[in-house]
Write a structure and sequence with these properties.
The chain is α/β, with parallel strands linked by helices. The protein has two domains: 8-123 and 304-321, Nucleotidyltransferase, domain 5, CATH 3.30.420.40; 133-299, Nucleotidyltransferase, domain 5, CATH 3.30.420. It has helices at residues 49-71, 90-107, 116-122, 124-127, 167-177, 184-192, 217-228, 232-237, 239-264, 280-292, 309-321, and strands at residues 8-13, 18-25, 30-37, 80-86, 111-115, 135-140, 145-150, 156-161, 269-273, 296-298. The longest helix is centred in the last third of the chain and has 26 residues, at 239-264. The radius of gyration is 20 Å and the shape is globular. The protein binds 5'-O-[(R)-(carboxyoxy)(hydroxy)phosphoryl]adenosine and zinc ion (ZN). Zinc ion binds next to helix 3.
Length: 341
């Protein structure tokens, strides 16, 4: 049965190192989206799971209050609680899921479990509420690189996946080799703007037609060997060119495979999702190529590319309308991929 009455969803995202609470209404309007990015992980060059869970615990209640204040509503105006349930760090997910269950139970309102990657895809609905399947989604985040063909909103097929590192992970590792901060993606993106992407050719894996899988470990090794064979002066002088040459080696296969698959199956919509969808070269190249083939590309606004709770709320809207609720014995799980529960 479809529900048509307007409603508000309070959404929680704690799958990795961002604590986020948002309130979104049934028209995909974000009433509040409060994020707390855990900068402490910069000190370690990557996310430390135990620290992440503890910070989520410390901040989640405060962020919920701030979100309600920002939206100018209180808990009695909330009709359902949505939460990221997988994939992610199990301890981090557990904080969000336990908190969501407690809210759902005490307020006696439905609990909605959301796959984090579905959240990234549905972030596009915040600016394009009418976006509908069929479409081809390219999910590129710190942990995933997936090409997914959505035949309708519930039926989807995994077309391609990474065999090793994810695209975001490749950005982070390239940045680490260059002794830049974590997360490396935005820094490499920024440096590349002043660099020559043909400065040095780094390998692109699985270049054959009809191969829709990805691999970035070869690029990482090639980049590392190249950098270690150069002097610190050379690296410093050419940092923009090195960033640009590595960036294009990560981005080019994403663009080529996505557009080729869409073309081969006559899919007219491409949906970008995940942290790497903020990348300026990815956006530029895919928009240019798709336009020539009359394919429309959707990308979330930059603020909704990275982990945030609004996208979890956006993915929960259709579940709410379909009465697709979870019971209080819901448990998070860390299994990778766009698997629904
Ligand atoms: O989706 P996300 O926020 O978290 C996960 O679910 O993993 O993605 C984080 C990833 C990081 O690896 C980060 O370096 C990358 O997204 N990223 C970017 C850019 N902004 C964030 N990569 C390339 N270019 C960017 N502008
Ligand atoms: Zn994410």
């Amino acid at each position: 049965m479809m529900m048509n009455k307007p409603f508000n969803i309070l959404a929680i995202e704690t799958s990795c190192d961002d604590t986020s609470v948002a309130i979104i209404n049934s028209d995909y309007k974000v009433l509040a989206n409060i994020n707390d990015a855990q900068l402490i992980h910069n000190l370690y060059g990557g996310v430390v799971p135990e620290i992440a869970s503890r910070i989520h615990m410390k901040h989640i209640m405060k962020l919920t209050k701030s979100s309600l204040n920002k939206a100018l509503i209180n808990l009695t105006n909330i009709d359902a609680i949505a939460v990221s349930v997988n994939p992610g760090l199990i301890g981090s997910l557990l904080v969000g899921v336990s908190y969501a269950k407690a809210l759902s139970y005490s307020l006696n309102i439905p609990l909605i479990a959301v796959n984090h990657l579905m959240g990234h895809i549905y972030a596009n609905k915040i600016t394009s509420p009418d976006l509908s399947a069929p479409f081809l989604a390219l999910v590129v985040s710190g942990g995933h690189t997936e090409l997914i063909h959505f035949k309708d909103e519930q039926t989807f097929t995994l077309i391609g996946n990474t065999c090793d590192d994810a695209a975001g992970e490749a950005f982070d590792k390239i940045a680490k080799i260059l002794r830049l901060e974590y997360p490396g993606g935005p820094i490499i993106d920024k440096l590349s703007k002043k660099g020559d992407l043909s400065f040095h050719y780094f390998p692109r894996a699985f270049n054959q037609q009809n191969n829709y899988n990805f691999s970035y470990s070869g690029l990482k090794t090639a980049f590392s060997s190249y950098i270690h064979s150069q002097s610190p002066e050379f690296i410093k002088k050419n940092i923009h060119h090195l960033a640009a040459s590595a960036q294009v080696a990560i981005i080019e296969p994403l663009v080529k495979k996505t557009v080729n698959y869409a073309k081969s199956k006559n899919i007219k919509k491409i949906v970008l999702a995940g942290g790497v969808s903020a990348n300026s070269l990815l956006r530029k190249q895919i928009f240019q190529k798709a336009e020539k083939l009359d394919i429309k590309v959707f990308a979330p606004p930059i603020e909704y590319c990275m982990d945030n709770a609004s996208m979890i709320g956006a993915a929960a809207i259709v579940k709410y309308k379909n009465n697709n609720f979870s019971s209080l014995d819901l448990n998070p799980f860390s299994t990778k991929g766009t698997r629904e529960v």
